[in-house]
Amino acid sequence: MSGDFSIQNIDNPDEKIVLLTIDDAPDKNALDMAKTLKELNVKAIFFVNGHFLDTPEEGEILKQIHKMGFPIGNHTYNHKSLRDLTEEEQRKEIVDLNDRVEELIGERPQFFRAPFGMNTDYSKQLAADEKMLLMNWTYGYDWEKDYQSKEALADIMVNTPLLRNGANLLMHDRKWTSEALGDIVKGLQNKGYKIVDPTQIETPANKETAAQ
Ligand SMILES: [Zn+2]
After folding, report:
1. Chain center to CA of 209
2. Is residue 1 predicted with pLDDT exceeding 70?
3. Gene3D superfamilies of this UniProt entry (predicted)?
4. Ligand 1 centre and the CA of 116: distance in Å?
């Protein structure tokens, strides 16, 4: 695995692939984004925060997204910078969210992405203990002022010089990202990229299951 956590196509090295990920979910747009992706028959990982899962209504949205076939990743409970927290606080941020997700969908997340992409040695150890694959990203733009519109974001996500085989694309639960999502998927596909099914990615948890 390389430094930006790109994805390698082991089975078919000639096929160009990208991974879609959606962070800070499920806020106001995640369910619509899941529906858009489902209509286009492609998958993404939804990295969720616990503070979006506190109420039964929010829990229902997560259940729906999971039922539509999307893997759920851990993006911590409160989206705090892990480097500012004690080990006990980091544990609560990470493990309590896995407990909450399991309570809702019956399984624990297999992917972990730290807020702001900033891990600590302890958070890396916790992710390993929880059998999660650590993820960062290759590129993303939807938090930058210049790209907070459907047109600008759809254009840069597909035409950036950073697009390459195995790229890990970061998006967020945002209105403009939701609006651009269909065009982003079609634009990537038009450039010959296949959207990876994240359930095909090897993680510490599924590696262990496969070995049994
Ligand atoms: Zn985030």
Report:
1. 22
2. no
3. Glycoside hydrolase/deacetylase (3.20.20.370)
4. 6
3-12, 123-132, 164-173: range with lowest mean pLDDT: 3-12
Structural domain containing residue 134: 17-211
Residue 117 CA, ligand 1 centroid: distance in Å:
8
**For position 159, which CATH number holds?**
3.20.20.370
pLDDT single digits (tens) 95-143 = 999 999 999 999 999 999 999 999 999 999 999 999 999 999 999 999 9
Within a domain: 8: no
Neighbouring C-alpha atoms within 13 Å toward the C-beta of 80: 15
Q: What angle do CA 59, 185, 173 make, to 5 degrees?
A: 30
Reported as a pLDDT band with limits 50, 70 and 90, residue 2 is: very low
pLDDT digits (tens, 9 = 90+) for 40-90: 999 999 999 999 999 999 999 999 999 999 999 999 999 999 999 999 999
Residue 7 inside a domain? The answer is no
Asked if residue 134 belongs to a domain, the reply is yes
Cis peptide before 26 (omega within 30 of 0): yes
Distance from residue 164's CA to the centre of ligand 1 (Å) = 23
> Ligand 1 center to residue 26 CA distance, Å?
11
Give distance in angstroms: CA of 210 to centre of ligand 1. 31
Residue type, 104: L
Q: How many domains is the chain partitioned into structurally?
A: 1
Q: Is residue 11 part of a domain?
A: no
Strand partners, 25: 48
Q: How far is the CA of 11 from the centre of ligand 1 (A)?
A: 31
